[in-house]
Amino acid sequence: MKGSATDDETLTSGPCGPSAAARRPRFSGVTRPLLRELSAAAAAALLVLVAVLAGRRIQDVHHTLFVAWPPLFAAWDPHVGPGTPAAVLVAAAVVAYGPALAGRLPWRWLLAGAWAASLAWTWSLALVDGWRRGVATRLTTGNEYLSVIGRFHDIPATLRDFTHHIVEGSPAPWPAHIAGHPPAATLTFVLLDRVGLSGGGWAGAWCVTSGTTACVAVLVAVRALAGECLARRAAPFLVVAPAAVWVGASADGWFAAVAAWSVALLASAVAGRGRTATRAAAAFGSGLLFGLTCYLSYGLTLFALIGAGVVLLARVAPGALLRGLPLFVGGLAVVPLLFTLAGFDWWEAYRLLVRRYYQGVGGIRPYGYWVWANLACTVLITGPATAAALPRAATALAGRRTRVLARDPGTAGDPATAEARLGLLVLCALLALLVADVSGMSKAETERIWLPFAMWLLPAGALLTRPRAWLAGQAVLALLINHLLLTGW
Fold it and tell me: In Å, how far are 8, 65, 100, 134, 370 from 11, measured between CA atoms?
């Protein structure tokens, strides 16, 4: 009935109430925000369709995309597997009960439940391909990190010599993924091997277990910056994200978690309400993890843009921020200092990587296609709900742009201002992703490369008017991708 509450509003109300969009007047049972959401999702679906059709044409005629099912690095392979029943069950449970539980559970139990549900969802999707094909051999192929474990028997010597093997034509050049990342990425799996967790099974389990903690980190940051209500509404969208298809099991899931926790700790340091010592430790930890992030993937230096958004949103005086800066910088210096003392030159390695990139398929793949088809990949990893919510995030920010950065505590309880603050955080992540896109260093395979950025787009789902319907769309897309395609990661 006109003006009556929907089931979704009831599910998400709890102590927080529905989103500002859901409270707006209805016209013939449909809100204007819902129409805008549906239009945005339809436009995103059209982008994916065009990317598929144009990509197939380019690949069939010119053979320059180097992907079997553009825009994804995947092959058409309809199949089911041992993870199928569990994946369907987890999806159904989150859609049916996720919003209600997210609104009512004590905060610590919500974080634990979100991680557990994310683990179940990611593992079940990975096992749709079976244990061997879906997990155990993912990181053991010729271009993956485990293929060079034996070359790190003397870690200091290997780090000193690392840049001498990046460019094609050099003696014993590194495989693509090792050459394409700073050595901390490979050292992750070398150290796992050293402590007895050797082989692809343990490596895949590490990526899934660590990667799924990213949803907890994002929730912690959203709560600190935009309030607990929005964090609770975002939780189910972080759990059943289609991105889980690539978190299980690719190393980029691990990278996403490190980057996410660096932002979460920064948010806790500058916007949290804990004791001074706790916030100081968070500032140091944030710097430490951001330094590690930069030595896991060159492109993740763009997380500085998201960090800048966190600082802008901090409701503290500039003097307090400056007092925490030395701790952050101190943590930030640790990893670069260790690698530099070991003989690895980050800047020289990046220069050589650019050369290596254009020696390979990166120099052949057409920029004119991938600069927009990469965005279609982003639609597929973040789902229709995120596409529908991004315009809402921009609108929320535009409507409160003069208040969103205010340090006036009187604005903290304003739902519209909270939504604007979330909008700014999400749009900072989108900006980082767009910078990566136009750089030309991310042509194809962005469904895994951009996982760290995608995690920060997903909370926009908290702004949607009918969360249960959109959650169903997220889950269905993930299930279709995982059962119709054999993804390369």
Answer: 5, 44, 5, 35, 40
Q: Phi then psi for 318, rounded to 5 degrees?
A: -55, -35
Helix H or strand E segment including 486? strand 485-487
Q: Are 224 and 463 in contact (CB under 8 A)?
A: no
pLDDT under 50 in the chain at which residues? 1-7, 9-14, 25-28, 409-410
201 near 80, Cβ under 8 Å? no
Residues 6+ apart with CB under 8 A from 437: 371, 374, 375, 446
Assigned token pair, 489: 């990661």
| Amino acid found at 208 | V
**Which residues does 374 contact at the CB level (< 8 Å), separation at least 6?**
71, 437, 442, 443, 444, 446, 450
Q: Contact, 252 vs 185, CB < 8 A?
A: no
Question: Which pLDDT score, from 0 to 100, does residue 3 have?
Answer: 39
3-class SS shares of the chain: helix, strand, coil, % to 5: 75, 0, 25
pLDDT at position 149, please?
96
Going from the C-alpha of 376 to that of each of 167, 243, 297, 382, 475, the distances in angstroms are 30, 13, 22, 10, 18
pLDDT at residue 9 in the model:
45
Supply the DSSP string of 232-287, one letter for each residue. HHHHHHHHS-TTHHHHTT-HHHHHHHHHHHHHHHHHHHHH--S-HHHHHHHHHHHH
What does the angle CA 256 – CA 260 – CA 263 come to, to the nearest 5 degrees?
Answer: 150
The answer to whether 389 touches 41, Cβ cutoff 8 Å, is no
Task: Give Cα separations from 127 to 18, 83, 116, 185, 216 (angstroms).
Answer: 36, 4, 16, 24, 23
Cα–Cα distance measured from residue 471 to residue 180, given in angstroms and rounded to the nearest whole number: 35
Report whether 270 contacts 321 (CB < 8 A).
yes
CA distance 268 to 307: 12
**Residue 274: per-residue pLDDT:** 72
Q: Give Rg (Cα) of the chain.
A: 22
Are 429 and 459 in contact, with CB atoms under 8 Å apart? no
Could you tell me the sign of the dihedral formed by the alpha carbons of 361, 367, 368, 371, in that order?
A: positive
What pLDDT, on the 0 to 100 scale, is given for residue 275? 81
Count of all residues that appear for the chain in the document: 489
Cα angle at 323 between 320 and 328, to 5 degrees? 115
CB distance 80 to 411 below 8 Å: no
pLDDT for the residue numbered 488: 87
Alpha carbon distance 353, 407 (integer Å): 43
DSSP string, 196-207: T--SHHHHHHHH
Q: How far apart, in whole angstroms, are the C-alpha atoms of residue 238 and residue 234?
A: 6
